[in-house]
């Protein structure tokens, strides 16, 4: 679907929902501004919250909007018994569309699939909380004067967690195919990155609902505030990650700038390795690991007082290769990169025969880096050197290099070598 | 997060529990910090906590159990008075720290007070503000002490968020550490030298009152002063182009103010000033190496008449040395 169509769809949806919600507001005076101010305030905060995004790898969190939506569906509305769960979802949808419209006006994009996933999660939570189970809904029980605060709050937090869990699952289902990753690894990945802000988001909505009968709309301010503190942390964490990325890039360029390797060697190995990894069907997370390991595989050369000609470890003596790898690992450890990256660098000079003859486990990422490094050492990025380089690498097939990886190299470089029309 | 709990204890009528909280926190820290620091932290916590309690009482803030049901107005009243108490706590904390730094390093109290407020004030107030959800859930929602359990995710996330400030500083240190490790592998002792130049440069920057941000930049400059020593020897094949290792650091945003100094950009006046200070720091550390403790003025004398060093920067060094040697122990390692 083109961007123009997406925009048209959002506008049409916004118009439809505004009209529906307007009709509902007018037909139920309790929901109108003169009734419980919590409803219009919540709708406004959800809409504004749609613009407060927390970018993560592969998705975006909208913590303020999500927490407020949870608060809306879990709170009792003064004097109203007619706020059914479909109406709740409609109100949240209206607010989300308003937010998306404002984002479009501001020239920022929204992800419709993510919004839909979030709405489904909120819908599930609303249905759980507000469906009449015969003796009333869970929400009725939670807000009865005889119910203690602690069990009520725990139940509401659990319901909010189910809603957020559904959203995460929908994202992971969609992403497992795209990233070629397992569901559990993606859930773990998401929890590590979003756990802190996610836990506040989930808890805050339920606690707003618990305290709202006592202090009214002020509850929103009291429990949304910690989310803003969390957002501050998230921004800082993003900066920390950015500095980490900048450091990896700087280290990958260091051998170029010191004159130890030919210009762009690490970047070319990373790019070629990435293409080979994708060809071999590695997961997105493995490709990311490979990229960093390839960028850092030669950084140890800067510690050499006697340089390797053209920085080509392919032709270097095994002892020199080991020294470079040892120092690369040492510097990568200082840089604080992931353990998987360090492991990949450490094994990136190991001969393939070690795995056949001694059963040594050589990570596939390391095998790819070894082949990609040899190819770039032989070609230095020149396309016309491809055939000679492949011939040379084939001489070490099964001994130095994994045949499957060399096949991937052949396929990937063949595509690259084709004339462009 | 102990500060948050102490502040929350005040309107709950548990102000006398503040020393208990401080002691509890100290017990947790035993073994992780030096005994002196544990005792110092506990004492600071008690002083600041009791000060907050006093302010709250002076301003007649509402206490739990007084009057009937707690509504929005009472919550706003508590929030306002607690915010004032927290602000006063911040000032007391900054003043005490400034006095301690003045007595140990001789840095002017006013400047140090301003630096502490500017660098950590917002984080301090944000930590204190986390006490309000505790009060609301405990008193207004009648959740009682168990409500703290419900707030654990929020308190944990807030603690994490506020700790990221430190994480950012540590990441920057990690960058320097990585580059120093590379230099050290090429030339053993370089890392120690760089650390010491960074320390002296930061002290000099504070002496001439360059401001907190510039002082940190100067420390970074000192630490990376010899990054160009990573260049490959001239006989290498890559020597067709002149190696410039500092160019690799261009993408590191937090070093954007440092690179011009490392690359000796003569067109920027602030670069020239920073370069002079770092040059003096470098020369002092070099001269100080191998001298026994207490002979720091000999090291100063050794560089005093060097024509390449700036007189005002040397004067700043002299003022620093009159108070204390910035380097903790005689330097017997390191080489060019």
What does this molecule look like?
The complex is a heterodimer of chains A (about 425) and B (about 325). Helices cover about 70% and strands about 0% of the residues of chain A. Chain A is built from 17 helices and two strands. Chain A is elongated. The model of chain A has no long low-confidence stretch (mean pLDDT about 80). Chains A and B meet through helix 7, helix 8, helix 9 and helix 12 of A and helix 4, helix 6, helix 7 and helix 8 of B.
Concise synopsis of the structure shown:
The complex is a heterodimer of chains A (421) and B (336). Chain A has 421 residues and is mostly helical.
Percent of sequence in beta strands of chain B: under 5%
**Gap between N and C termini of chain B, in Å?**
46 Å
Helix content of chain B: 55-70%
Please identify the structural class of chain A as seen in this structure: mainly alpha
Oligomer: heterodimer
Elements of chain B, N to C (H/E): HHHHHHHHHHHHHH
Figure out the total of helices of chain A: 17
General shape of chain A:
elongated
Overall average residue pLDDT of chain B: 80
Global Rg of chain A: 28 Å
* Gap between N and C termini of chain A: 27 Å
The backbone outline of chain B, from C-alpha atoms, is elongated
Number of strands of chain B: 0
Total count of strands of chain A: 2
Biggest beta sheet attributes of chain A:
2 strands, antiparallel
Which characteristics define this entry?
heterodimer, A: 421 residues, mainly alpha, two-stranded antiparallel sheet, 1% strand, elongated, B: 336 residues, 14 helices, 0% strand
Q: What's the helix and strand layout?
A:
The complex is a heterodimer of chains A (421) and B (336).
Chain A: H1 3-27, H2 38-49, E1 54-56, E2 59-61, H3 63-74, H4 85-105, H5 112-130, H6 138-142, H7 149-179, H8 183-215, H9 218-257, H10 265-279, H11 284-296, H12 318-335, H13 339-346, H14 353-357, H15 364-379, H16 386-395, H17 403-417
Antiparallel strand pairs in A: 1-2
Chain B: H1 2-9, H2 18-29, H3 35-58, H4 72-105, H5 109-129, H6 131-140, H7 147-150, H8 152-186, H9 190-207, H10 212-224, H11 259-262, H12 269-288, H13 296-304, H14 311-323
Helix pairs in contact in B: 1-2, 1-3, 1-6, 2-3, 3-4, 4-5, 4-6, 8-9, 9-10, 9-12, 9-14, 10-12, 12-13, 13-14
């Amino acid at each position: 679907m083109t961007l123009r169509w997406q925009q048209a769809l959002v506008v049409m949806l916004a118009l439809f929902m505004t009209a529906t919600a307007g009709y509902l507001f007018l037909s139920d005076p309790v929901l109108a501004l003169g009734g419980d101010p919590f409803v219009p305030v919540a709708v406004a905060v959800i809409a504004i919250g749609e613009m407060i995004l927390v970018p993560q790898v592969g998705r975006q969190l909208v913590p303020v909007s999500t927490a407020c939506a949870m608060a809306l569906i879990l709170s009792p509305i003064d004097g109203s018994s007619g706020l059914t769960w479909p109406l709740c979802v409609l109100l949240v949808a209206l607010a989300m569309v308003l937010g998306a419209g404002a984002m479009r006006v501001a020239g920022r994009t929204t992800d419709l699939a993510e919004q839909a996933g979030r709405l489904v999660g909120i819908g599930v939570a609303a249905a759980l909380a507000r469906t009449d189970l015969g003796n009333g809904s869970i929400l009725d029980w939670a807000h009865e004067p005889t119910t203690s605060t602690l069990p009520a709050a725990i139940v509401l937090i659990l319901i909010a967690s189910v809603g957020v869990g559904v959203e995460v699952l929908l994202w992971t289902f969609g992403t497992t195919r795209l990233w070629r990753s397992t569901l559990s690894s993606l859930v773990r990945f998401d929890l590590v990155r979003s756990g802190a802000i996610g836990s506040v988001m989930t808890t805050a909505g339920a606690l707003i609902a618990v305290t709202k009968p006592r202090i009214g709309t002020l509850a929103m301010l009291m429990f949304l505030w910690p989310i803003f503190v969390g957002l501050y942390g998230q921004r800082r964490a993003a900066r920390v990650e950015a500095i980490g990325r900048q450091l990896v890039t700087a280290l990958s360029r260091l051998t170029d700038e010191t004159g130890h390797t030919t210009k762009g060697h690490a970047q070319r190995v990373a790019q070629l390795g990435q293409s080979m990894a994708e060809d071999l069907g590695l997961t997105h997370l493995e490709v990311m690991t490979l990229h960093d390991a390839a960028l850092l595989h030669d950084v140890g050369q800067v510690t050499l007082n006697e340089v390797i000609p053209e920085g080509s470890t392919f032709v270097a003596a095994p002892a020199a290769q080991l020294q470079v790898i040892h120092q690369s690992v040492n510097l990568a450890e200082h840089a604080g990169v992931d353990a998987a990256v360090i492991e990949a660098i450490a094994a990136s000079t190991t001969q393939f025969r070690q795995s056949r003859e001694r059963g040594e486990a050589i990570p596939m990422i390391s095998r790819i880096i070894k082949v990609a490094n040899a190819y770039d050492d032989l070609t230095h990025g020149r396309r016309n050197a491809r055939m000679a380089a492949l011939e040379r690498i084939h001489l070490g097939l099964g001994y130095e290099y994994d045949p499957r990886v060399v096949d991937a190299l052949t396929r990937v470089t063949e595509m690259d070598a084709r004339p462009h029309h | 997060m102990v500060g948050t709990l102490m502040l929350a204890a005040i309107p709950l009528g548990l102000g006398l529990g503040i020393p208990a909280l401080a002691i509890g926190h100290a017990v947790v820290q035993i073994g992780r910090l030096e005994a002196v620091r544990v005792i110092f932290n506990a004492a600071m916590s008690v002083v600041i906590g009791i000060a907050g309690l006093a302010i709250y009482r002076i301003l007649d803030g509402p206490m739990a159990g007084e009057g009937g049901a707690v509504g929005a107005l009472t919550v706003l009243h508590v929030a306002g008075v607690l915010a004032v108490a927290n602000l006063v706590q911040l000032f007391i904390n900054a003043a005490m720290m400034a006095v301690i730094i003045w007595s140990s390093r001789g840095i002017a109290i006013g400047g140090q007070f301003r630096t502490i407020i500017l660098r950590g004030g917002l984080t301090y107030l944000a930590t204190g503000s986390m006490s309000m959800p505790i009060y609301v859930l405990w008193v207004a929602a009648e959740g009682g002490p168990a409500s703290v359990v419900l707030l654990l995710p929020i308190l944990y996330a807030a603690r994490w968020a506020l700790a990221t400030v430190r994480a950012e500083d540590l990441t920057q240190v990690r960058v320097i550490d990585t580059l120093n490790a590379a230099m050290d592998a090429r030339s053993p002792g370089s890392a120690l030298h760089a650390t010491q130049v960074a320390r002296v440069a930061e002290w000099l920057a504070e002496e001439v009152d360059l401001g907190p941000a510039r002082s940190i930049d100067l420390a970074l400059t000192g630490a990376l002063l010899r990054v160009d020593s990573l260049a490959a020897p001239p006989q290498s094949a890559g020597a067709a182009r002149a190696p410039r290792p500092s160019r690799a650091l261009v993408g590191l945003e937090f070093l954007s103010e440092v690179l011009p100094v490392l690359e000796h950009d003569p067109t920027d006046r602030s670069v020239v000033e920073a370069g002079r200070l770092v040059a003096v720091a470098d020369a002092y550390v070099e001269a100080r190496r191998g001298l026994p403790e207490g002979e720091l003025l000999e090291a100063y004398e050794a560089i005093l008449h060097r024509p390449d060093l700036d007189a005002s920067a040397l004067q700043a060094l002299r003022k620093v040395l009159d108070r204390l040697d910035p380097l903790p122990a005689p330097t017997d390692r390191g080489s060019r």
